[in-house]
């Protein structure tokens, strides 16, 4: 569903991504675990076409980002670390804007906006400005937005920053439901080991390279300490 081959992105001489090759399947929740500076955000910026890779390519649902950019990008939804909603627009206007960008017909857009918001208990708040919402509800709107065009791949970059435990739980439950019910592939970037719980697969990124890849148990074993957290800390210092 999502493939990268030999993906390299340099800032000057420094390789933030260093020949990264990955293959992620449909219907899987994959945790991308890496310390600060590992290259997680850079990977997301390349996957979403914000920056071009220096080497390598990305394929999303069979479309090459380099050769068929719009088709590849249509299969990606993203929630970045920094909130990117327009604070002075209502929830409805923010979501409608995204629906227009993806060319969703009016009736379908209205239906998906209503269903997406209802899923998070936001249905009574559609005409409120985003500025008036709590951090948790802003995140939920971002997730509704990322899902509006029903992409095959959802990229979540430190998406629980600022969320209370209940909002965090709701967000994760919604994503796991998308994986099960729609066969979405979720790539969940985090530097918190506890956020890999429930993931089908854990990928550990360090200095732009793959350090370990597999189930939590397999990665714990590969990192060579008693717990995943201890191994992660020991091997990424
Ligand atoms: N615009 C930039 N110019 C120069 N170097 C950059 C730039 N953006 C990132 N880097 C460097 O690239 C490397 C990877 O950074 P990146 O932000 O992708 O890591 P990250 O895993 O997302 O970290 P964090 O968990 O702190 O968000 C770091 O060494 C960082 O300093």
Automatic annotation (TrEMBL):
Recorded hits in PROSITE patterns, A to Z, give: ABC_TRANSPORTER_2
Q: What name appears for this protein in its UniProt entry? A: ATP-binding cassette domain-containing protein
Q: Which family does it belong to?
A: Belongs to the ABC transporter superfamily.
Domain ABC transporter positions: 2-232
Organism, scientific name:
Piscinibacter aquaticus
PANTHER family per UniProt: ABC TRANSPORTER ATP-BINDING PROTEIN (PTHR42711), ABC TRANSPORTER ATP-BINDING PROTEIN NATA (PTHR42711:SF5)
Q: Name one GO molecular function term.
A: ATP hydrolysis activity
Q: Which SUPFAM superfamilies match?
A: P-loop containing nucleoside triphosphate hydrolases
Q: Which UniProt keywords apply?
A: ATP-binding, Cell membrane, Membrane, Nodulation, Nucleotide-binding, Transport
Say if the entry is tagged with keyword Cytoplasm: no
């Amino acid at each position: 569903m999502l493939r990268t081959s030999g993906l390299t992105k340099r800032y000057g001489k420094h390789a933030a991504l260093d020949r990264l090759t990955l293959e992620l399947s449909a219907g899987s929740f994959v945790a991308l675990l890496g310390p600060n500076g590992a290259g997680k955000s850079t990977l997301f910026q390349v996957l979403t076409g914000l920056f071009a890779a220096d080497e390598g390519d990305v394929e999303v649902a069979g479309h090459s980002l380099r050769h068929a950019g719009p088709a590849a990008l249509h299969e990606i939804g993203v929630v970045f670390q920094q909130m990117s909603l327009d604070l002075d627009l209502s929830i409805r206007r923010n979501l409608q804007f995204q629906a227009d960008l993806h060319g969703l017909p009016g009736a379908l857009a209205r239906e998906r906006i209503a269903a997406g918001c209802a899923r998070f208990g936001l249905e009574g708040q559609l005409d409120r400005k985003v500025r008036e919402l709590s951090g948790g509800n802003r995140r939920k709107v971002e997730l509704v937005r990322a899902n509006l065009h029903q992409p095959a791949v959802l990229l979540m970059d430190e998406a629980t920053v600022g969320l209370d435990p209940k909002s965090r739980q709701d967000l994760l439950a919604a994503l796991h439901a998308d994986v099960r019910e729609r066969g979405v592939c979720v790539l969940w970037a985090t530097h918190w080991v506890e956020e890999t719980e429930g993931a089908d697969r854990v990928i550990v990124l360090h200095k732009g390279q793959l350090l370990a890849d597999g189930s939590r148990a397999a990665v714990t074993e590969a990192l060579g300490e008693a717990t995943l957290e201890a191994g992660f800390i020991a091997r990424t210092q």
